[in-house]
Amino acid sequence: xxxxxxxxxxxxxxxxxxxxxxxxxxxxxxxxxxxxxxxxxxxxxxxxxxxxxxxxxxxxxxxxxxxxxxxxxxxxxxxxxxxxxxxxxxxxxxxxxxxxxxxxxxxxxxxxxxxxxxxxxxxxxxxxxxxxxxxxxxxxxxxxxxxxxxxxxxxxxxxxxxxxxxxxxxxxxxxxxxxxxxxxxxxxxxxxxxxxxxxxxxxxxxxxxxxxxxxxxxxxxxxxxxxxxxxxxxxxxxxxxxxxxxxxxxxxxxxxxxxxxxxxxxxxxxxxxxxxxxxxxxxxxxxxxxxxxxxxxxxxxxxxxxxxxxxxxxxxxxxxxxxxxxxxxxxxxxxxxxxxxxxxxxxxxxxxxxxxxxxxxxxxxxxxxxxxxxxxxxxxxxxxxxxxxxxxxxxxxxxxxxxxxxxxxxxxxxxxxxxxxxxxxxxxxxxxxxxxxxxxxxxxxxxxxxxxxxxxxxxxxxxxxxxxxxxxxxxxxxxxx
Length: 481
Ligand SMILES: NC(=O)C1=CN([C@@H]2O[C@H](COP(=O)(O)OP(=O)(O)OC[C@H]3O[C@@H](n4cnc5c(N)ncnc54)[C@H](OP(=O)(O)O)[C@@H]3O)[C@@H](O)[C@H]2O)C=CC1
Ligand SMILES: O=C(O)CCCC(=O)O
Description:
NAD-dependent succinate-semialdehyde dehydrogenase; Ald_DH_CS_CYS; binds glutaric acid; Ald_DH_N; about 40% helix; Aldehyde Dehydrogenase, Chain A, domain 1; seven-stranded mixed β-sheet; Aldehyde Dehydrogenase, Chain A, domain 2; binds NADPH dihydro-nicotinamide-adenine-dinucleotide phosphate; alpha/beta; 14 helices
């Protein structure tokens, strides 16, 4: 087991490192080896309630700080993350299997939300509205929403936390973070760095538990939490929304996707292959914006399939800590079973493997391309969340758009074409929150990330991100002569 000075086993509540009242712990394992990395505090609902109380108690003083004071704390935290980049990256690879190169990228990406929102804190302007009578003055200000909770997924152990707490902390909210039981160590490591950055006690809290459904109920039903931001599967998002009804909690839900990747016959095929590899195999296919369906126009179908299959066959699979590895393991057995089921179903319905198609040892699966995919296959309807790329065929632009939109999801979409008029037409017709045009990698802190339809609502990152952690207050001054 490698040493890592950032490993913490206890939860971080009210500026202290705490055990569960029951003293229980749960194990965190390395998906590449099955080895137990650490045992982490297993909190109960009652333990979490104490963290919420601490966050609420810390809110009045924290919201009263100036934007510049908050920005300075965030800047310290950002710098500490970058100082500890290598250790954070290795920890992330250990607990989620992501290849080291991508983990290093995630530290930069995750930290960028803290830097961005530290800057945005100073720009949360209000408005002065022209008054409807001479003796009034109408002003709008924005204020922190209150205590914010974040429930985050294992596929981005760092960035999905910072993308939520960045705007919250900038806006003057205190936070309670509930990381997934698969990857609590990165979350605890950045809590340690938040402590070193100087956030006052109770402002930043991280609760760990193996009982996410119980903790989820507390975070939804406790009226002290005013805002809940979640990234994860659509079914869990729906549960959280139902549970939040009793407190009319403000929600941001960033849920599953079923991203289409359309290659038109006027596309640069080499560029399309490169974009498809980037988007499909990022984090071994385990991101909500990963390509799920590749749609290729008749005339270029064979050429694309051949070049793409060749590129996929060349991907190096292995332990993410080994240099040169491009594709790591699936996160767990459930994830692996889903991949196997999708491939079996596709083969039974007439798909053909051009490369891959087999499970390897442990949680590894060969990067796979399935030709002749059709809309009746499971993989066309559900996100595979793994290294399998089904390639569909279409004839006309209208058919491509119709196929692309034929899903309840609406997160990311991509297409390749050199025709400018078509680029505008198709981009506008795609029912998705995000569109990559001749580009397979669209995520950045400066642009709004989020979906429509059953991919959820709310936007993260960008100048829009803070609005989801602020309330608008209208003030009407009367009696002004
Ligand atoms: N949009 C996205 O980015 C993601 C999408 N997914 C999709 O979901 C599928 C399943 O992955 P999975 O990890 O099970 O995703 P989940 O949606 O189950 O997990 C995401 C987060 O929600 C927590 N959680 C799970 N159930 C509840 C609940 N009832 N109340 C409150 N919190 C809860 C998890 O905690 P814990 O892990 O401790 O149970 C984790 O922190 C994937 O195959 C993929 O299709 C998954 C992850 C991210
Ligand atoms: O998969 C996800 O949960 C979304 C993160 C991906 C990204 O930010 O690009």
